[in-house]
Design a protein that fits this description.
This protein is of the alpha+beta class. It is built from eight helices and ten strands.
């Protein structure tokens, strides 16, 4: 079991054991990939799972049998793989770590989305829940990433948003930005103006070719073509 240094009351380093993660990185990848590939709640074909993970069908078959025995998936040969409630919970935990790290890397280290995603893919498997909780608190408990991807809560629940394009709002309406479907360069520019997922926003005025919004106590004029790509959840009247 891996060890780390701790200090006794006398200041002398002492080796203590670090608890192992409940599941291996390989198991976590199977769970998360199954979540990503499923459509309309249908089982994921084994061949599709193996191809996406770049493993042989034989290896995928063996792993799915193991996950079935652990109560993480329901695996029926020739029909596919589906997550159990236990598997769903753990997959949500992994996704939560990933999206929290991706948010941190984009907002605080100025990484572009693709680079942040790649780094978060590695960090998600090495992050204890206690660290994820602290990261969540540090970020202000975001419900979405800078790209508008929902972040599961500590219990695995995902907040859903009924959103409208900013261009559909009228002057005087308020809401929260849910997603910005723009390029990385435009997303970075908008974020510097305070226009990012999770930010509170009010529409000050609407012109023929632009929308004037109030965000973080600043007025920002957005071209109509940009406003059409920003999704906003309206505040309840």
């Amino acid at each position: 079991m891996p060890k780390e240094c701790a200090r006794t009351s006398s200041g002398v380093p002492q080796m203590t054991e670090t608890p192992r993660a409940p599941f291996s990185e390989s198991v976590e990848m199977y769970l998360v990939t199954t979540t990503r590939l499923r459509e309309d709640g249908q089982p994921v074909p084994l061949s599709q799972l193996a191809s996406t993970l770049d493993v042989s069908p034989v290896s995928a078959n063996e792993m799915c049998h193991k996950l079935h025995e652990q109560g993480l998936v329901i695996y029926r040969p020739y029909k596919g793989v589906a997550l159990t409630a236990k598997g769903e919970q753990h997959a949500a935990t992994i996704r939560r770590r990933h999206w929290l790290w991706e948010t941190f890397l984009i907002e605080h280290l100025d990484m572009v989305a693709a680079q942040a995603h790649e780094t978060a893919c590695r960090l998600e498997h090495a992050t204890p829940d206690s660290v994820a909780d602290r990261l969540d608190a540090f970020l202000g408990h975001p419900s979405v990433t800078p790209e508008g991807v929902p972040i599961p809560g500590a219990a695995g629940a995902v907040t859903t948003h009924a959103a409208l394009p900013l261009s559909a709002l009228s002057a005087g309406q308020h809401g929260h930005i849910v997603r910005c479907d723009v390029s990385d360069a435009a997303r970075t520019f908008l974020a510097k103006q305070g226009v990012r997922p999770g930010a509170a926003l009010g529409v000050a005025a609407v012109a023929k070719d632009s929308v004037l919004v109030e965000v973080e106590q600043t007025s920002v004029a957005l071209a109509w073509t940009v406003a059409e790509l920003i999704q906003v959840e309206l505040e309840a009247p």
